Amino acid sequence: MIRDGLATLLASAPDIEVVGQAGDGQEAVELCAELRPDVVVMDIRMPRLDGLAATERIAGAGSEEGTKVLILTTFDLDEYVYEALGAGASGFLLKDAPAGDLIHAVRVVASGEALLAPSVTRRLISDFARRRRHERPRSDVAQVLTPRELDVLRLISRGLSNAEIAGELFLSEQTVKSHVGNVLSKLGLRDRTQAVVFSYENGIAG
């Protein structure tokens, strides 16, 4: 009933098409391979294959580019959120959020424009990165990115949108968009969420 309700809500938006529903993680992986959706709204606790493993297969390293995963979560499941970030999730939505927030969240994740619920997500990402910082050495990012691209990455890590970054750096939005694309490409990152994680892991955020 909950899944049907979410599907009905999303389908009510004129710019969103619900192309499939899955009852467990394994079915979600199979449907994604067949349908190649832009965004998957993923629960964590599911039969056969849980949402974390499904997210890894759909959006993790080595997976097909394009499909992004929006995780439904609750405050008391922070550990799952850390694991979901590592698995390749692009965004989070609290299960008790207003219905309209789900539609907005799907649009945001699809566009890659900004993080969801910055007050929640930045805290989770910061703690996630702190826990994982020892797992890989600090990258010499200054040799990979230009000074301006590094400025853009720092502002991305604060959860700023392209328009906000443009205002901070006195640039056009199109120029910022180009810089963001360069940052993601040079660092081998999937989207802005991964860019924030990268920033925290490598001491760039600020």
TrEMBL record:
Residues 1-110 form the Response regulatory domain. It comes from the Bacteria. It comes from Actinocorallia libanotica. Keywords: DNA-binding, Phosphoprotein, Transcription, Transcription regulation. PANTHER family: TRANSCRIPTIONAL REGULATORY PROTEIN NARL-RELATED, TWO-COMPONENT RESPONSE REGULATOR. This is Response regulator transcription factor. Residues 138-203 form the HTH luxR-type domain. The modification 4-aspartylphosphate is found at residue 43.
